[in-house]
Design goal:
This protein has 238 residues and is of the alpha/beta class. The chain has a single domain, classed as Uracil-DNA glycosylase-like domain (Uracil-DNA Glycosylase, subunit E). Helix content is 40%, strand content 10%. Strands 1-3-2-4-6-5 form a 6-stranded mixed β-sheet, with helices on both faces. The relative contact order is 0.15.
Length: 238
């Protein structure tokens, strides 16, 4: 375990090198068991798929000015396809909005290598393995935090962080705290919440997560999401 922590803490100089390290991580026993169990059992609709079953690195434009932070891969979405927000209903909602706003080359993200390109947008997650019940433990989130720190360090053009849900919002605030930076008073999460850029930090914009729990109940609608995401894109491009 000590050796793994040392490996997670070392510096890398490129996103491809960091991606290799993320994919190889086995630091959280519960998450490793879960993601690999799901990859073996599969869902009936995807029985012909060769599940990814490993941690998920970020995806998108390495020169992006807008960075979207999510929670974690879905068991039969990213854990199956190997790409964040790919192959599940949450991703369908997110990429459709990005496409409508001209930031994604297509409206559906089906699998790795499907031609999806993002323009000025990069997507990553606070936790890189699919957790049981979509709920990582605080310890698992902390253990994964160095990947968030280092991936953000390799995205030097970031002007806006767009947090999907309160866990992503807090993950960003914890990230800047680890850099000995604070926003006082601590900003409250909410859909459309905005913390302006200051003191070398990018803008922080919040949105309800694009989970079906929100989209199917009407808590988050397409017009609501498009409005907040378009604002984040405008701020990134100012």
């Amino acid at each position: 375990m000590t050796k793994r922590r040392v490996e997670i803490g070392k510096k890398v100089t490129s996103l491809p090198l960091l991606e290799k390290e993320i994919v190889a991580c086995r630091a959280c026993p519960r998450l490793v068991r879960w993601r690999e169990e799901i990859a073996k059992e599969k869902r009936k609709a995807f029985r012909d798929w060769d599940y990814w079953g490993k941690p998920i690195p970020g995806f998108g434009d390495p020169k992006a000015r807008l960075v979207i932070v999510g929670l974690a891969p879905a068991a039969h979405g990213g854990n199956r396809t190997g790409r964040i927000f790919t192959g599940d209903r949450s991703g369908d909602f997110l990429f459709a909005s990005l496409h409508r706003l001209g930031a994604a080359s297509q409206a559906e993200s089906i699998k790795r290598g499907d031609g999806m390109k993002l323009d000025d947008v990069y997507i990553l997650a606070a936790v890189r393995c699919a957790p049981p019940d979509n709920h990582p433990s605080p310890a698992e989130t902390r253990r994964c935090a160095p990947f968030l720190d280092r991936e953000l360090e390799l995205l030097p053009n970031t002007r806006v962080v767009f947090a999907l849900g309160i866990i992503a919002w807090n993950a960003w605030l914890d990230h800047i705290a680890r850099r000995d930076l604070r926003i006082k008073p601590k900003p409250t999460f909410g859909h459309g919440a905005h913390v302006p850029a200051a003191n070398g930090l990018p803008h922080l914009v919040g949105s309800f997560h694009v989970s079906q729990q929100n989209t199917l109940t009407g808590k988050l609608t397409e017009p609501m999401f498009d409005k907040v995401l378009s604002r984040a894109l405008r701020l990134a491009r100012e």
